[in-house]
UniProtKB/TrEMBL annotation, chain A:
It is found in: Cell inner membrane; Cell membrane. Belongs to the binding-protein-dependent transport system permease family. OppBC subfamily. InterPro entries: BP-dependent_transpt_permease, MetI-like, MetI-like_sf, OppC_N. One of its GO terms (biological process) is peptide transport. This is Oligopeptide transport system permease protein OppC. It is a multi-pass membrane protein. The chain crosses the membrane at residues 41-63, 106-131, 143-161, 167-186, 221-250, 270-293. Keywords: Cell inner membrane, Cell membrane, Membrane, Peptide transport, Protein transport, Transmembrane, Transmembrane helix, Transport. It comes from the Bacteria. Residues 104-293 form the ABC transmembrane type-1 domain. PROSITE patterns: ABC_TM1.
From TrEMBL, chain B:
CDD domains: ABC_NikE_OppD_transporters. InterPro entries: AAA+_ATPase, ABC_transp_ATP-bind, ABC_transporter-like_ATP-bd, ABC_transporter-like_CS, Oligopep_ABC_C, P-loop_NTPase. Pfam families: ABC_tran, oligo_HPY. GO terms for biological process: peptide transport; transmembrane transport. This is Oligopeptide transport system ATP-binding protein. The keyword Nucleotide-binding applies. One of its GO terms (molecular function) is ATP hydrolysis activity.
Amino acid sequence: MLFRSKQKAVAEAMAANLSMAAVEGRSPWADARERFLRNKAAVVSLILLSLVVLACVFGPMLLPHSYEDTDWDAMAMAPTWHNLHLFGTDDLGRDLLVRTLIGGRISLMVGLMATIASVTIGIVWGATAGFLGGKVDTVMMRIVDMMYAVPYLLIAILMVTLLGREFYLVVLTITVFSWMDMARVVRGQTLSVKSKEFVEAARAIGVSTGSIIFRHVVPNLLGIVVIYTTVTVPGVILTESVLSFLGLGVQEPMTSWGVLIEDGTGVMETTPWMLLFPAAMLSLTLYCANYIGDGMRDALDPKDR
Amino acid sequence: MSDKKLILSVRDVKVHFKVKGGNDWPWTPKKTLKAVDGVSFDLYEGETLGVVGESGCGKSTLARSILNLIPATAGEIVWMGKDLRQGSEKDWLAVRRDIQMIFQDPLASLNPRMTIAQIIGEPLRVHRPELSSEEVMKRVRAMMVKVGLREQMINRYPHEFSGGQCQRIGIARALILEPKLIICDEPVSALDVSIQAQIINLLKELQREMGLALIFIAHDLAVVKHISDRILVMYLGREMELAEKHALYDKPSHPYTRALLSAIPIPDPKLERNKVIQILQGDLPSPINPPSGCVFRTRCPLAEAQCAGERPELRRLSADTQSSCLLA
Ligand SMILES: Nc1ncnc2c1ncn2[C@@H]1O[C@H](COP(=O)(O)OP(=O)(O)OP(=O)(O)O)[C@@H](O)[C@H]1O
Ligand code: SF4
Ligand SMILES: [Mg+2]
């Protein structure tokens, strides 16, 4: 009996709770996450890309070889279990698996750093132009147009031949020529958000300019920034391999996917695995990044709703 | 009306935009678009002024110039005896506590990345920073109940609401500071007819309860009929007629008002069938290049030679009607 009434009390309390409790709203971000998770290709790509990144970061520590030491028993060896040369070795007897992973580190690092740098520049440039508008906007956007017209490979070759083949130079070269898309997109979005009625509503209330920027405009730029960041990554990684392939990448014995692919192309007929494995890793990464980018766009772009 | 306190006085306000044609050269001189060209009216405590006119006649621009969202080019905007156009930033902040605005597009006027609680509470955070967040929440909840929103919705985001609910959120945001005047820029144009009535009734109720003055903008006379005390009819940035509601509906003094009135459907089918809808001839002239004299003369059925002469000003015809028609 006592138990019964207790149960009833609990049930009543729960009912009361239910009707009183505020319904948790679903933020646009939560909606986007759900849409992203429904996209199978994007989720699979995310998992694969995570595996690639983990392998590149931790793989070399777990394997018994170093990326620069020669294994005198195994010169230009095809993939084998012997000595755990799973991807084989190159013509100098260096383990290709370790070299691919180390090269991946460089490629991904270049990709990451150049993306961060170019995205940051693009956001600041585009948002400033969009906010200020008028003449400042016109001048800043003409500069962007001019940047597009610069023959970038020529400049890249010049920079690297003059200053040397350094990691940071590769990043710099890529950054200088890949921030403009982001700048254009962010400017467009800033202009559009700035003219939305909710910004006017905030001004009517008396919200300060700083708060309008940080509470009302910036949060509404984030979606498009995320989308464009995810599509910048594969572009930047690809540019890095193009530069490396042209002999403008990092210096031996350090390597990157682009450098490895270039080495492999030369000996394609005799030791094809030297081309196949790095090329496969690069392709896998680019595919995954592109699918993730697509998933992000579908998830975040309000127009498709 | 004389026993009521005058709160807002708009004197000969003009808002001109410098505009450039789409394919003009950069060095072509900019043209002047006269969106609002000399509008004057007074507004008393607790009163509702309806503002009516075709799309593009400058209603929104007039509303925005009162709040300095678009600065007026000329004229005086006197709020509680103070000319706001001479005011400092601080004066404006004080005014923004007393005058609030409700917008045409309910969803677009709410930040999609903020919850309802944040949206309705924002005016309090700006003007009453001393309030604790519990106090803010308490007031937000109370206001939600007042405008007919369920309290449970407090943590939701705007996209989860219907248009009518979004407009209620906009109203709650406008009311939370207990302002003296709310400018409603076509608050129901984007809503279904059945919801329109709900929102208008809600505004009327809240107005009575809180003693608000309203400036209620609409593009036809049917919508403002139930809520307004006086009505201002605008055309091409100019005032055509400013009259007490009954005077305006019963004996409109201006040909443009008559044309607008004839477009309102009459509920009685017999009368409706025999009614002559007066369709205005010609197109709306461009506010960049308005007709000389009476701006309505290119479409006015009564236009005469003298209408092209001097620009007619609003003049008082009777205690409750002012009109700018030369023949009225
Ligand atoms: N920022 C601006 N720059 C240039 N012209 C403008 C600007 N804002 C409005 N206009 C012009 O001013 C005129 C009046 O516009 P306004 O928005 O006030 O009209 P409205 O009466 O509110 O119309 P609607 O019923 O469509 O809302 C229009 O011709 C419009 O094109
Ligand atoms: S002044 Fe002339 S043109 Fe203007 S409304 Fe009167 S009659 Fe028509
Ligand atoms: Mg308008």
